[in-house]
Design a protein that fits this description.
GO terms for molecular function: FAD binding; proline dehydrogenase activity. InterPro entries: FAD-linked_oxidoreductase-like (IPR029041), Proline_DH_dom (IPR002872), Proline_oxidase (IPR015659). Its cofactor is FAD. This protein is of the alpha/beta class. It has 19 helices and eight strands. Strands 1-2-3-4-5-6-7-8 form an eight-stranded parallel barrel, surrounded by six helices. Helix 16 links the parallel strand 7 and strand 8. The protein is globular and about 75 Å long. The N terminus is likely disordered.
């Protein structure tokens, strides 16, 4: 992975602390305001003290709102608070979605007015900019505040090879822009396989892979070396009958999808910035996992995962699959990296399963989902502590953040550790992001970007998927209000 450079805010804090620190012995000169470059070959003792078991809640301090939001300008804080409050009103979200899907978007001047309103509100809050230049500027602003960026060109599914080639170039441009950004400010570049391989091909390949899981004698001549895609409990109901083999044209389209992904992987290797593959619906996820794992086998070397997959822990089979994948990868000597998320397609997944007469693949209760996420987190942190793999803990859940931070302390995992990254969506869970960063952990924001018209489908999907999350983010809104009140009372603008 890329060489880690401590963000300016954390570096400044470190300098302030070390300036007043007594030297360990007379052989070490007193530190002055000018600090020598860090020697990452050495491992100086951390400045923090490991908390006791009963003190884990203090790892993430949400009480000091002044410190929590110290690098957020008042205007930005006010706008963020207003948008999050608006997003928590479901009727307002429904109205906004109706407007963006309506025929008003086909009529001028209404279309222009709507796009302008979106651009200066929700788009500005949840997106990083219209192109790589503005996105990288947003990354730099975040990095000044101690956070990092995970860049994703926010395009939706592609239906043909022409669209896939166009999207590929945008993803390649993103990686190139990341190379020129401040070192280590971009933690990952994101790719959606559905944007570089036609959706119909991913559906066909997923059908064939599922059938092979049912019938191990089923031959797939195009299949490359990969890792386990299914477990015994994985849902196979999407494929009701034996699928036909790929046609010559479909075989070629699949090969082109592989070639596009390999170009991105090779570009990521050259940039030394990991490529993270996003997860999608279970109808196409088998094909996405297959392509991800076959690429990981080719490019993940020397305990350096350059290709990361994504596991959605709201799926009942997530933990079992994680165990199977890591076991197979270790046997092959392949370091694996994963992003762990709860998941974002709960309604659609349950609806499809019910329509086919099957139980939902999603955990029956939110408590089961929390337990699965936390168990998978614990498992991956133990792997990291033993020097294997990497993990991105993508969560907006404060309790999961506290548990993960506590586990990292218990295992002796260094805070600024290139194998452990926390992540939240841009514009959401600011308190958790800054709380983890203030505790010394590496934290990234998932940062979609692109022209407003192209990003609208992304915003619509996020609004639909995250309506529960947005309405539940009460504590974040309360903390923002508390800090705004403090600033206004103190005359701080």
């Amino acid at each position: 992975m890329a060489t880690r450079v401590i963000p300016p805010r954390i570096l400044k804090t470190f300098r302030q602390k070390t300036i007043t620190t007594k030297p360990l012995n007379s052989a070490h000169p007193t530190l002055s305001a000018t600090v020598a470059p860090f020697n990452f070959a050495e491992k100086p003792k951390p400045t923090f003290q490991k908390p006791t078991t009963n003190d884990y809640d203090s790892l993430l301090n949400f009480n000091d709102v002044e410190k929590l939001f110290s690098f957020v300008p008042t205007t930005r804080l006010f706008l963020s608070s207003a948008i999050l409050h608006a997003s928590a009103v479901e009727s307002m979200v429904d109205f906004g979605m109706w407007v963006m899907k309506s025929k008003l978007m086909e009529v001028e001047p209404f279309k222009g007015l709507i796009l302008t309103a979106i651009k200066h509100t929700f788009y500005q809050h949840f997106c990083a900019g219209e192109d790589t230049t503005t996105a990288c500027r947003t990354v730099q602003l975040l990095n000044d505040a101690g956070l990092r960026g995970m860049l994703v060109y926010a395009v939706e599914d592609a239906t043909d090879n022409k669209g896939c080639d166009r999207n590929l170039q945008c993803f390649l441009d993103t990686i190139e822009a990341s190379r020129s950004a401040r070192p280590s400010s971009v933690s990952f570049n994101i790719v959606k396989i559905t944007a570089i391989c036609p959706l119909r091909i991913l559906e066909r390949v997923s059908d064939l892979l599922r059938w092979q899981q049912k019938d191990h004698s089923f031959n797939l001549p195009w299949k490359q070396n990969s890792l386990p895609i299914f477990s015994d409990s994985s849902p196979l109901y999407h494929t009701r009958k034996r699928p036909e083999p790929l046609t010559v044209e479909e075989d070629r389209d699949l090969e082109l999808g592989h070639e596009r992904l390999q170009k991105l992987c090779q570009k990521s290797v050259e940039a030394n910035i990991p490529l993270l593959v996003d997860a999608e619906y279970t109808s196409v996820q088998p094909a996405i996992d297959y392509m991800t794992y076959s690429s990981a086998i080719l490019h993940n070397k020397d305990d350096n995962p350059i290709v990361y997959g994504t596991l959605q822990t709201y799926l009942k089979d997530a933990k079992e699959r994680l165990l199977l994948i890591t076991k197979a990868a270790e046997k092959m000597g392949i370091p694996m990296g994963f992003k762990l998320v709860r998941g974002a397609y709960m309604s659609s997944e349950t609806k499809i399963a019910n329509s086919l007469g099957y139980a939902s693949p999603i955990h029956n209760t939110i408590e089961d989902t929390h337990a699965c996420f936390n168990d998978c987190t614990s498992f991956m942190l133990e792997k990291i502590a033993n020097g294997s793999g990497g993990v991105v803990l993508a969560t907006h859940n404060v309790q999961s953040g506290k548990l993960a931070a506590a586990k990292a302390y218990d295992l002796g995992i260094e805070k600024v550790n290139h194998k452990l990254e926390f992540a939240q969506l841009l514009g959401m869970s600011e308190a958790l992001s800054f709380g983890l960063s203030n505790a010394g952990f590496q934290v990234s924001k998932y940062m979609p970007f692109g022209p407003v018209e192209i990003v609208i489908p992304y915003l619509l999907r996020r609004a639909e998927e995250n309506r529960g999350l947005l309405s539940a983010a009460k504590s974040d809104r309360q903390l923002m209000r508390k800090e705004l009140s403090r600033r206004l009372k103190g005359g701080i603008i």
